[in-house]
Amino acid sequence: MSRAKEIHKTVKKNSIPGQTGINEKIWLALILIFITLIYSNSFHNGILNFDDIEYFTLYPEVLKLNWSNLMLYFSKHYVLMYQPLPVLTFAMNNAISGLNTFPMHIINLLFHMGNVCLLYRFIYLLRENKSEALLVAFLFGIHPMNVEAVSWISARSSGMYVFFFLIGINYYLMYLKQQFPVKYLLLAGIFFLLSLFSKAQAVTFPLVLVMLDYFYERKLLSKRVILEKLPFLILSIVFGIVALADKGTQQNLTNGMMINYSYFDMLFLVTWSFSFYVIKFIFPVNLCSVYVYPLKVNEMLPIEYYFSAALILGLIYLIYRNKRHRWLVFGVGFFIAVISINIQLIPSRLFIVTDRYGYLPYVGIFIMAIFMVDHWKKMNSMSFRKYSIWLWGGLTIYCIIFSIEVIGRNRAWANDLTLMDDIISKNPEVPYLYRAYGIRGLYKVNNGNPIDGINDFTKAIEIFPSDGKTYMNRAIAYSRMNNNAAAIADLNESAKRSPEQPQIFSYRAILIYQMGNKEQAWKDCNRCLELDAKFVDCYITRGTVAFDRLDYNQSISDFTKAIELQPTSSVPYKNRGQVYIQMNKNYEACKDFQKAAEMGNSDAIQLQQIHCN
Q1: Cα(446)–Cα(578) distance, rounded to whole angstroms?
Q2: Who has greater pLDDT, 45 or 297?
Q3: Continuous segment of H or E residues that includes residue 353
Q4: How high is the pLDDT of residue 561?
Q5: DSSP assignment, residue 351?
Q6: How far is the C-alpha of 438 from the C-alpha of 135, rounded, in Å?
Q7: I need a labelling partner for 194 at 20 to 30 A (CA). Which of 34, 240, 467, 581 fits?
Q8: How many CB atoms lie within 10 A of CB 422?
Q9: Is the overall model pTM greater than 0.85, yes or no?
Q10: Strand pairing partners for 300?
C-alpha cells in the first residue's frame, strides 16, 4: 500500500491535519509574539542605499499608485528582477504612509510570521506531530540566517515568494493525502503563480512536488504524475525566460569577475557554497550582509574551500548509506532542489552566497533534523531517554543564542553606516568592497561629515579605480567643503570613466558655472541632455546660463520644460518668474512667484513682495 493511501485512511478516520486545536493555537501565538519581540528593534531601520532607495528613486511609478502604473509593475523589471507583487506592495506602502519605514518593516515581518504558520502546517501535514511542527516553526522563526529576508526592506520578495510557495505545497499535500481532489491541485497552481509573480526563485516549485511524490511512493514516470507536473513545468520555463529577458539582468549575470578562477577553482566554489548553507544552519555566527568571492593567494583558494569538497562527499556517502529512509532523502532533495537555483555554477556575480538564499531551502534541513532525531528515538529509545535532557538543554541554549543573534543582525541593517561597517569588517579587501566604501562615504557626507566621506571615497578609488561614480561622489563631498577645484578635477576623471552618465555633466555644469565658465557649463548641459532628455537639473542649469546670456526665450523654454518634468519643484517656477520680470511680463512673473511661494520657496516669497504688491 502506498504512503498516500495509508495517510488517506488516517484522514478518513480523523480530522484533516492542519485543523489545530486550542493548545497549538496558543503555542503558535506565543511563538509569533516572541518573534515580534526579537524583531522589534528593526522596525525603525531606515531605507538603505543598498537597493531600497532605488525602488523609490529610479521608478517614479512606485510613488504613484494607479491603474496605469499597476500595468507597469507587471510589465517591467525592478532592480534587475521581475517581481511585480512586491513592487505593488511598495507602491501601496508609499500610497498609505509615504516613505515611513515602520509600515514597510511591519509588512516584511507579517510575511515572515505567515511563513512560520505555514511551515507549522506543512510539517504537521507531513508528520502529524504537533510538537515537531511547533518546534520547527519556532526555530525557523528565530533562525539568524533568516534576518536578511525580514529586516532588509528590499528582501520582501523573498518573504513573499516563500509565503505563496508554502501555501502551494500545502495544497499539494492535501491533494496527495485526500486521494487527488482536483481543486487542491488547481489551488496549488494558483499560489505557485503568485509565488512566481513575487520572485523568480519560485521556479523550483515543480521539483519540490516531485520530491513529495517520491516521499509518498508515487510512480514518478506514470502518465498521471507527468501530466500533473506539466503545467507547473511550463510556468517555470515561461517565468524563467521572463526573469532573464531584461538586458540589465543579463549583464548582471554575465559580468566578468574581478578575480580570475580556473575550472578547478569553480568546483570548490560550488562545494563551498553548498557547505556554507549547511554549516550556517548549525552555526549561524559571523553572519554578514555580503560574502564576497575569495581572494587567491599563490594561486590557491582559502583552505576551507578545499575542505568543503570533503564535507559534501561525506554527506553524499551518508545519504547513500541511508537511502532506504525516505525522510532523509526527501529532506536532502528539498534542500538541494530549492537552493540549486542560487548556487553560482559559473562565477558571474560579485558575491558568492547570501543569507536570504537559505530562507526556504532550510525547510529541507529541518526535515532531515526531524528524521535523525526520530530515527534515534525509534532505534534506541533508552539512549534517547537518557540523553533527551541534554538534547532539550542544547536546544534551549541554541534558542537563546539565535534570539540574541537576530537582535544583533537587526542592528546591522539599521542604516547605511552600520550595514557597510558590517560588510567592510567581515570581508577581505577585494575590489567589490569599493561599493561598500562608496555607500558609507555618501552616508557620512549626507550626515555632515564630508572629510570622513572623502576618506571612504578615496579608499574606494584605491581598491577599484575604474568606477566613475565614486569620483563623482567624492566631487560632491569636495563641493560641500567649497573646494570646487578638487571637485571639478574629480568630475573630469568621472567623465572619462563613465562618459554615459548624465549626472556627471550636470554636477560639473553647476560647479563650472559657479566658477564663471559659462560656455563650458552650456556644453555640459547640452551633453547631459543628449544622454537623458528628461534630466531636470540640466534644464534648470541651462536655463540659468541662457538667462545670463540674455537669451530669455531659451531660458523660458528650459524652465518650462523643467516644470513639465517636475511640477513639484519650486526652483524652475521661481527662476522663470525672474526671467519674466526682465521681459516686463509682471503678470506671468507673479503667477510663477505665487506658485513657488506656495511650495515654500523663501526667495519666491521675497520676490513676490518686491514685484507683486
Answers
A1: 31
A2: 45
A3: strand 351-353
A4: 95
A5: E
A6: 42
A7: 34
A8: 21
A9: yes
A10: 297
